[in-house]
Amino acid sequence: MRSFHAAACHSHSGVPAQRGSTFRSAVSRGSAAIAGHMTAVLRLVRQWRQRARDRTALARLDSRMLRDIGLTPGDVMREINRPFWRE
């Protein structure tokens, strides 16, 4: 058992390997990747919530306000009936 442990702690060049450094690097890269994915997911959810709020606000505008911004009731109906995940 002792000879196996000694062999496992040396690199192919005969120089002692730094124990766990490769693993720590892999974990660090994995953590960074997960953090990046979580940031992207949170950004997407914020965007979806903003679209839902914007469409709710648009639905509350009266015909005079719609004319002021150059929209027809048909434009508004198309926009507010879109799912929140669609632009």
Short account of what is shown:
The protein has 87 residues and is mainly alpha-helical. It has 4 helices and no strands.
Describe this structure in words.
This protein is mainly alpha-helical and 87 residues long. The chain has one domain. It is 70% helix and 0% strand. The protein has four helices and no strands. α2 runs antiparallel to α4. The radius of gyration is 28 Å and the shape is rod-shaped. The model is unreliable at 4-9 (pLDDT under 50).
Topology:
Blueprint: H1 2-8, H2 21-59, H3 63-69, H4 73-80
Please indicate the percent range of residues in DSSP E strands (runs of 2 or more).
under 5%
Rg, rounded, reads 28 Å
Order of helix and strand elements from N to C terminus: HHHH
Round the mean pLDDT to the nearest integer and report it.
Answer: 82
By DSSP, the count of extended strands is 0
What are the low-pLDDT stretches, counting only 5+ consecutive residues below 50? 4-9
Oligomer: single chain
Number of helices: 4
- Outline: rod-shaped
The residue fraction in helices comes out at: over 70%
Q: What's the number of domains?
A: 1
Q: How many strands, what sense, and barrel or not for the largest sheet? A: none
**How many angstroms does the end-to-end distance come to?**
63 Å
